[in-house]
Amino acid sequence: MLDWYFAASETAPLRELHLTQPKGILELRKDVLGERHPDAILAMANLASTWWQQGQSDKAEQLLGQVIELRKSVLGNKHLDTVNAIEYLAYIRQRRFSRN
To answer: Three-class SS of residue 9?
Structure first.
């Protein structure tokens, strides 16, 4: 998913960290950019997506809730990224509850 980013940037050495320890990338971005930076928030959203795909829906939902609150605060309620995060959380909840 992020192969193009790592190939086209000076952060190629981080590719291995992203592939083996996705949470490591999140923490690195938070440390370097700050938690409220859009790229750090994107890393949080990506980690939530990874957790969802791994079947860790509770963790994914919790992290997406944080993503939504940060995006509302930083980007505003009507920003496309904020709306997409809200829609993704609704999708996850709908899929989870339709299985039960």
So the answer is: coil
| CATH 1.25.40.10 corresponds to the domain 18-99 | yes
| DSSP sequence for 42-90 | HHHHHHHHHHHHTT-HHHHHHHHHHHHHHHHHHH-TTSHHHHHHHHHHH
Domain locations in the chain?
A: 18-99
Report DSSP state, residue 27.
Answer: H
Average pLDDT over residues 47-69: 92
Distance of CA 77 to the CA centre of its chain: 17
On whether the pTM is more than 0.85, the answer is no
Token pair, residue 86, equals: 């809200």
Give the closest residue to 36 by CA, choosing from 80, 2, 77, 66: 66
